[in-house]
């Protein structure tokens, strides 16, 4: 697969994640957060069940480091990060729909560090221009006034979002690590499989019914299929040919879509500077697949001494 195609698929997957608020925000106000996340994983494990044994065998044969990476993605990036993200909708108002785009602001920074340590990816200096532009764009989206860091009293949702950002960033790095040796559908299957027991433990600790009402269960299923199975299938397929730090910039399609969804569906007002941030970030996401050699040509990491 061409690198530009991989980046495009990652961006499309991230745009699907940006529609998450359409389903998750209403659910978060009628159903326990832990119940939602457990239900999502239950649906995802059910539809990938035929792939579970082959995926487990494949990762086991690769060794303990790969098994640990799969567990970390499932428990951390899938279960815990999703719990934190969903809780942000509970603790914030309509403004939180835009505020949670802060989730993505630190992801490229964390992913660059993680990719350097785990994958040995070394971006060329010109990549810093795209990274800096992306950070400026998401900064403008996140705050109604870029010079006023007031988050409208929504400190707790922001903290949840930032904690989830770190988990998602390392999830991107570890996902890239696994897709180098595993089939993309096996990586997605392992994510769901290890996320299920983690979300089950969270359900026991946090409390809440194991199953939601029939109405909410239907929308949990839709959420799992659209932003879970479909988005993650595209994501891991594209990640096979996409360096982790490039993928995390392509994932900025998420805050762009989330901001537009918040404005259109929930009436979350965006200021002129926030719309400017949407434009800047969209430009970065569009240029990545258009000029992959210029923007994400990576210098090999130095060989170990």
Descriptors:
305 residues; mainly alpha; 78% helix; 2% strand
Structure description:
The protein is mostly helical. Helix content is 78%, strand content 2%. Helix 1 (3-17) packs antiparallel against helix 15 (272-290), helix 5 (64-91) runs antiparallel to helix 10 and helix 11 (184-206) runs antiparallel to helix 12. The chain is globular and about 45 Å long.
Q: Radius of gyration, rounded?
A: 18 Å
For the sheet with most strands, the description reads:
2 strands, antiparallel
How much helical structure, as a percent, in the residues? over 70%
In terms of DSSP E residues, the strand content is: under 5%
By secondary-structure content and strand pairing, the structural class works out as mainly alpha
Which word captures the global form? globular
Number of strands: 2
Mean pLDDT: 82
Topology overview:
Blueprint: H1 3-17, H2 20-28, H3 33-47, H4 49-62, H5 64-91, H6 95-99, H7 102-105, H8 107-119, E1 121-123, H9 127-142, H10 155-179, H11 184-206, H12 214-239, H13 244-250, H14 253-266, H15 272-290, H16 292-295, E2 298-300
Helix pairs in contact: 1-12, 1-14, 1-15, 2-5, 2-12, 3-5, 3-11, 3-12, 4-11, 5-10, 5-11, 8-10, 8-13, 9-15, 10-13, 11-12, 14-15
